[in-house]
Amino acid sequence: MSNRTPIIAGNWKMYKTTSEASAYTAEFLGLVAGVTGVEMVLCPPFTCLAEVRRQTDNSPVRIAAQNMHFAPEGAFTGEVSAPMLKEIGVTDVILGHSERREFFCENDEDLAKKVAVAIEAGIRPILCIGETDAEREAGKTEEKLRGQIEGGLAGIDADMLAGMVIAYEPIWAIGTGKTATPEIAQQAIGFIREALTGRFGAGAAGRVRILYGGSVKPDNISELMAEEDIDGALVGGASLKAGSFAQIVKFS
């Protein structure tokens, strides 16, 4: 295990009304009271952000949005900007999740703008990258990851990189029940850190936290976290129940 503080983030996706989110947050805070040595991040839908932020005000829990536009304001119906998120106390933002890339046609060029804008606004980006099943089978995993790193991080420098988060999410493992073995996850994340070293230098690449995401559960988190380069997890389905997510947070 490195000296990088682990991050465990729960991506609720399009689940939970505000009342459901409020009940979850109250339960979760009770379950993780006194937990130290790990950063906890809840990623509710936009409608729940303000309420969950209010409930977590006196706790170490960080709050992330699941997306953000790169413009500060404008005629972008249905979108939300960095200043809007910042004002309600959002600390982090997930960018480039594979579902956003696939269903909403997000591309690396737009994500590069979003990453830079988030950092400038004081919101920590969690940039998601990962390959499809077909790309892995064709031996193109490293090519895909390198392209997403170069494209999505085009607008930042080494100092900015050190303060952000990368999430490796093999698309074939998201919501499928398939989990990359700890060895596969370490191999990919080790490659990501090498690619970041080549681009930004060893200092920044050594400080950036790289998470694994893809069917993370209470029964596989400890194995994943034992790997040298895995600095935490971006959890989907298993974060929707407070008890399950609390177990993952308390992996050690």
Overview of this structure, please?
The protein has 252 residues and is α/β, with parallel strands linked by helices. It has a single domain, classed as Aldolase class I (TIM Barrel). It is 42% helix and 15% strand. The protein is built from 12 helices and 8 strands. The protein has an 8-stranded parallel barrel, surrounded by 5 helices. Helix 1 runs parallel beside helix 2. The radius of gyration is 17 Å and the shape is globular. The termini are close together. The relative contact order is 0.16.
Topology overview:
Layout: E1 7-11, H1 18-31, E2 39-43, H2 49-55, E3 62-65, H3 82-87, E4 92-95, H4 98-103, H5 108-121, E5 124-129, H6 133-137, H7 141-152, H8 158-162, E6 165-168, H9 182-200, H10 202-207, E7 209-213, H11 221-225, E8 232-235, H12 242-249
Parallel strand pairs: 1-2, 1-8, 2-3, 3-4, 4-5, 5-6, 6-7, 7-8
Mean pLDDT comes to 95
- Which regions are unreliable across 5 or more consecutive residues at pLDDT < 50? none
Which descriptor suits the 3D outline?
globular
- Rg, Cα atoms, Å: 17 Å
Record the strand order, biggest sheet. 1-2-3-4-5-6-7-8
Structural class by secondary-structure content: alpha/beta
CATH topology: TIM Barrel
- What does the largest sheet look like? 8 strands, parallel, barrel
Tell me the total number of β-strands. 8
The named CATH superfamily = Aldolase class I
CATH class: Alpha Beta
- DSSP helix fraction: 40-55%
Task: Please state the second-level CATH architecture.
Answer: Alpha-Beta Barrel
How many structural units, i.e. domains? 1
Task: Please give the count of helices.
Answer: 12
Order of helices and strands: EHEHEHEHHEHHHEHHEHEH
Report the portion of residues in β strands. 5-15%
How far apart lie the N and C ends? 11 Å
